[in-house]
Amino acid sequence: MNGVHDMGGLQDMGPIRRESDEPIFHAEWERRIFALFNAVDVEWPYRRHQIELIPPADYLRMTYYEKWLAALPQILLGTGMATAAEIESGNAIGGPSAGHHALTVAEVATWNVPDTSPKLTATAHFQAGQRVRARNMNPLGHTRLPRYVRGKIGTIARDSDVEAVQDSDTQGLAPKEQHVYSVRFAARELWGEQASPRDSVYVDMWEGYLESA
Amino acid sequence: MTTTRRDLLTVALTAAAGAAVARDGSGTQAADHDHEHDHQTVPSDLALRVKALESLMVAKGLVDPAALDALIDTYEHKIGPRRGAQVVARAWMDRNFKQRLLTDATTAIAELGYGGDTMIVVENTAAIHNLVVCTLCSCYPWATLGLPPVWYKSAAYRSRSVIDPRGVLREFGLSLGEHVEVRVWDSTADLRYLVLPERPAGTEHMTEEELAALVTRDAMVGVAKVAVPQSRVHA
């Protein structure tokens, strides 16, 4: 979806405001929504999409954790974890929700240790050094292809990983698990003559986002 | 995404907050939002809305309160940029580790016992400066740097880093010459980036631990260089 979340290249968002001695959380409610949003049993692309669906004016006004707070009820509704009546009342009218896993303390402890699970595999159709063009596609659902590279020509810099496609609309993006490449776009290809001739932007792109150029 | 759904959201959150007030009977809340960042108004009911959602999710069996506490403790107290700083210091001290880090960062970082993200490490030199951003959301190497600062997640940083990285760096106090090549890394997939900053001159005598103490989060995102306090420089 072409939404305000897809911000790369906008120029009117003001100065970058930094806070000295910034705490990890600014309020107790931020701690709690951080934990709830991380614990909920749903894939990250779905979570991200619910944030993207926040109306644009609200998205721009809200703080980071306010956006998480706005998205979480939508996740509960959209996955059937809770009903609208339950969210309206705050009461678990239908009793415990079946079929959803509650994250455990033991699982949290596994989040930040080296991952020993086997890596995904797929056939690579591009290789480093190859010229590619980012497809010009404008799906209505969730996508990880930013607008600012669509239709632009770049070079495969690195065959970086194999990952499952995260788009909601997978038409034209089969198979599900694909190579992800770091694609180098010259800054001038993206932004024209005002950009430095030396500079570049590297974007991680699933194979299905690319065509030979 | 429909208007109906958005209306429901508003109604639901307002009602849930009301329910929470009714349940604890106090109606009080912490006025604990006194920092400065990008918003004009702070809805007064945020804490209550979160509390209502948490109560509901616990009652529905969707979350375990102990796991929530563990998540908060992990990212508030256990994991932070010190991890990344150790990785950087090791790379400065050990040429072979640095080579492994630049080739397969995930595996090299695992040597220090750290993991959780698929990592790529990019090296800053006198000729190349790397900068990391996530234009679409807020992707950041949590497992190596902890949670990102507010500015990293801000619209200003996310939008301008790709179109005007040199301007962004100037805002951070870093002016790069035209001879330097700037590479911006937009974290659009599940790969997470760490910048290996340049080792500053005058640190040849330092131990790995002392070096790690110099490395800042900002240097590992690519918005700063690593500086050495004058008192630590040997002539």
Describe this structure in words.
The complex is a heterodimer of chains A (213) and B (235). Chain A is an alpha+beta fold and 213 residues long. Chain A has 2 domains: 28-108, no CATH class; 131-212, SH3 type barrels (Roll), CATH 2.30.30. Chain A has 7 helices and 5 strands. A 5-stranded antiparallel β-sheet of chain A has the order 4-3-2-1-5. In chain A, helix 1 (28-39) runs parallel beside helix 4 (64-78) and helix 2 (44-52) crosses helix 4. The radius of gyration of chain A is 20 Å and the shape is globular. Chain B is mainly alpha-helical and 235 residues long. Chain B has a domain at 80-232: Alpha-Beta Complex (Nitrile Hydratase, Chain A), CATH 3.90.330. Residues 1-41 of chain B have low confidence and may be disordered. Chains A and B meet through helix 1, helix 4, helix 5, helix 6 and strand 2 of A and helix 1, helix 2, helix 3, helix 6 and helix 8 of B.
Task: Give a short overview.
The complex is a heterodimer of chains A (213) and B (235). Chain A is α+β, with helices and mostly antiparallel strands. Chain A is built from seven helices and five strands, in the order ααααααβββαββ.
